[in-house]
Design goal:
With about 525 residues, this protein is of the alpha/beta class. It has 16 helices and 14 strands. α6 links the parallel β5 and β6.
Length: about 525
C-alpha cells in the first residue's frame, strides 16, 4: 500500500535492471518522466512497455507537459506557447482545443496524467518560477481557461492536475532553490488564489498538486511550516473546505525549498501526514528507498493513519481504473491541427510597445535596410527541456524565418549568457547594419544578456528588442526602444515576432491594448532548469 503513495523519476531512456529493482523494492505505483527519459517517440513507448513488462504490473505514468517552458517530450506532441500567451488571448475555445490535442497526443505516448495546468494567479509581486506558466493576474479568467483545458483533457482520457495549491503566483523566490514565505491572507486566498482551484474542483479535476512555500496566515500553526507539511492547508483547506475528493500530489520533495528541513524520507512522512495521497521524488533512487522505508515504519508505529492510507489507495486505484490499454494508437504523432492552433495563440498573445510610452510596434523593419539579428542559442537548453528539432540549428532556423519575408539578415548567434567576445561581435555586427533586432533571452536571469542590451541601447539608434522567456525586461530599457513580449521561446512564438516586425500579416496591425503586466522586478535568484 505504501507503494501507492510513491511517484518516482528515474534516469536514462532504457529500463535498466537497477530501475526495475527500484520499483520492485519500493512497489512504487507512480512514474514521472522527464527529458532524460525521452530519446525518440518509438523508443519512449518501447521503454515504458519494457519497464511494465519487467515489473508485471501497470504504472501510473505522468509528465509535466504544461507547454512553453515546461515540455519534456520532443516528438509526437505540439509545442504550445506558455499559459500567459493564451491568457492574453482570453480565448476559451483555444484552451479547450489545446486540452483535446494534448489528450490525443499524450495518450498515444502512453501518458496517463498530465501535471498541468498551472492555476497560480500572478500578482504585483514578481514570481520567477511561475511567470509565463500562469494564465495571468485575472483569477476569473485563469479559472475559465484552466477548467476548459482540464475538461477537454479528461474527456480525452488524460487525467489533469491543478497546481500549485494554495497558489504561488506571488512567490518572489523559486521553490526549486529556496523556501519562499508568502504573506497571503485568508481574504486574498479566498478572493484570488482559491478561485481557479474551486473552479477546477467543480469541473471534476482528477488531481491537485500542492506547493512548497510557507503561508503563515493560512496554516494556523505556530511554527513556519511549508504548505507541503501543513495539515491545515492540505487536509483542512483543500480536502475539507474546498471538498476535493481526488488525488492530492506533493511537488517534488527533492526541491531546495525542503532540503534544509530534513531528508527526503522525512519529508515524505510529513507530507503524507499533512494529507497527501502521493509524493513525488523525481531523481534520487536512494531517497525513494528511504521514503518507502520510513513511510512503512511510520504506519507500523501508528504515527500515520492506516485508515487514511487505505483511503489514499482507493483514490489512486480509482484514478488508475479503466486504464488497461497503455497506448491509444501504435504510432505516436502530433495532431494535424496542433501547430496551427499553437501559432494562433502565439500571434494573438504577443504584446508590443515602446519603452516608457505604450505606443505600438508593427511592420517596423524594412527589407530595404541591412538587418542585423542577434539571436540566443536556444539549442543549449536541450539537455534540460525539449527543444524543437527545427530549433536545434539556431542560425539556420532564424535565417530561414527572415528569408521567407524577403530579408537578407546577417545573423549572430550567441550563448544565453554571452561571453565578452560574443557581446563585442554582436555589437560590431549591429554597428555595421541599418537596423538591429535583438532576441533578448531573460536579461534578469542572465547578467551578460542584460549588459549587451544596455550597450546596444547606448550605441545602436535603430534597435528593436524581442524579450524571450518571461514577462518582463522592458523595465531595463533606457529609451523609447520598440519591444515585443512573446511570453516564451517556442518556434511559433519566434515566428510570430518576425511576422509582426516585418508587417507581413494584416491582422497584426490592430491594437492589442495595454502594456504587459509585471514589467518591474526585484533582484531574485532564478532558474531555467524546470
Amino acid at each position: 500500500m505504501v507503494g501507492h503513495q510513491l511517484m518516482l523519476g528515474v534516469p536514462g531512456d532504457r529500463p535498466l535492471p537497477e530501475i526495475v529493482r527500484l520499483f520492485q523494492e519500493t512497489q512504487a505505483v507512480g512514474l514521472i518522466v522527464f527529458r532524460r527519459n525521452f530519446k525518440s517517440a518509438p523508443a519512449f513507448c518501447t521503454w515504458l512497455s519494457q519497464l511494465e513488462d519487467a515489473l508485471g504490473r501497470r504504472l501510473l505514468v505522468s509528465v509535466d507537459h504544461e507547454g512553453g517552458r515546461v515540455i519534456h517530450l520532443q516528438e509526437g506532441v505540439t509545442f504550445f506557447p506558455d499559459n500567459l500567451a493564451l491568457g492574453w488571448t482570453a480565448n476559451m475555445d483555444y484552451a479547450r482545443r489545446q486540452g483535446e490535442i494534448e489528450a490525443a497526443e499524450l495518450r498515444r505516448l502512453g501518458i496517463d496524467l498530465n501535471l498541468a495546468p498551472t492555476l497560480d494567479v500572478l500578482t504585483a509581486s514578481y514570481s520567477p518560477n511561475i511567470g509565463i506558466r500562469s494564465y495571468g493576474n485575472d483569477a476569473a479568467l485563469t479559472a475559465r481557461l484552466g477548467t476548459a483545458r482540464i475538461q477537454s483533457m479528461q474527456a480525452g482520457g488524460l487525467s489533469a492536475c491543478a497546481k500549485h495549491f494554495p497558489g504561488q503566483g506571488q512567490s518572489p523566490l523559486d521553490a526549486h532553490l529556496d523556501l519562499p514565505i508568502l504573506p497571503t491572507t485568508k481574504k486574498e486566498f479566498e478572493s484570488i488564489h482559491a478561485v481557479p482551484f474551486k473552479a477546477a474542483i467543480a469541473a471534476g479535476v482528477d488531481t491537485v498538486m500542492t506547493s512548497h512555500p510557507v503561508y503563515p496566515h493560512l496554516n494556523n500553526e505556530p511554527e513556519m511550516v511549508p504548505a507541503t507539511f501543513s495539515r491545515a492547508i492540505v487536509t483542512g483547506l483543500l480536502r475539507e473546505a474546498l471538498g476535493f475528493k481526488g488525488v492530492i500530489l506533493s511537488d517534488d520533495l527533492e526541491m531546495g525549498a525542503l532540503k534544509k528541513l530534513g531528508t527526503v524520507g522525512d519529508s515524505a512522512v510529513r507530507a503524507v501526514a499533512a494529507g497527501h495521497d502521493m509524493v513525488l521524488i523525481c531523481s534520487d533512487g536512494e531517497a525513494a528507498r528511504d521514503a518507502a522505508k520510513k513511510l512503512t515504519q511510520a504506519y507500523q508505529d501508528q504515527k500515520l493513519s492506516l485508515e487514511e492510507l487505505k483511503a489514499s489507495c482507493r483514490r489512486i486505484e480509482s484514478l488508475m481504473a479503466g486504464r488497461d490499454k497503455r497506448f491509444h494508437e501504435a504510432c505516436a504523432k502530433p495532431e494535424p491541427e496542433g501547430e496551427s492552433l499553437a501559432q494562433a495563440i502565439a500571434q494573438e498573445g504577443i504584446r508590443r510597445g515602446h519603452a516608457q510610452s505604450g505606443e505600438l510596434l508593427s511592420g517596423w523593419f524594412s527589407a530595404e535596410k541591412r538587418t542585423a539579428v542577434i539571436y540566443p542559442k536556444i539549442s543549449l537548453l536541450n539537455d534540460r527541456i525539449a527543444v524543437e528539432t527545427a530549433m536545434l540549428d539556431d542560425e539556420f532556423f532564424i535565417e530561414k524565418l527572415f528569408q521567407k519575408d524577403g530579408f537578407k539578415a546577417q545573423i549572430k548567434c550567441i550563448a544565453l549568457d554571452p561571453s565578452e567576445q560574443e557581446q563585442a561581435g554582436a555589437l560590431a555586427l549591429a554597428q555595421n547594419a541599418g537596423q538591429t533586432l535583438f532576441f533578448c533571452f531573460d536579461p534578469h536571469l542572465y547578467p551578460a544578456s542584460r549588459k549587451l542590451l544596455e550597450n546596444l541601447e547606448r550605441r545602436i539608434p535603430w534597435l528593436a528588442v524581442v524579450f524571450l522567456r518571461d514577462s518582463f525586461g522592458a523595465d531595463l530599457l533606457m529609451r523609447k526602444t520598440p519591444y515585443l513580449y512573446t511570453f516564451g521561446f517556442r518556434t511559433v512564438q519566434i515566428r510570430a515576432a518576425v511576422v509582426l516586425l516585418t508587417g507581413q500579416n494584416s491582422y497584426l496591425n490592430k491594437s492589442f491594448g495595454s502594456k504587459p503586466p509585471l514589467l518591474t522586478t526585484q533582484d531574485s535568484r532564478l532558474t531555467i532548469d524546470e
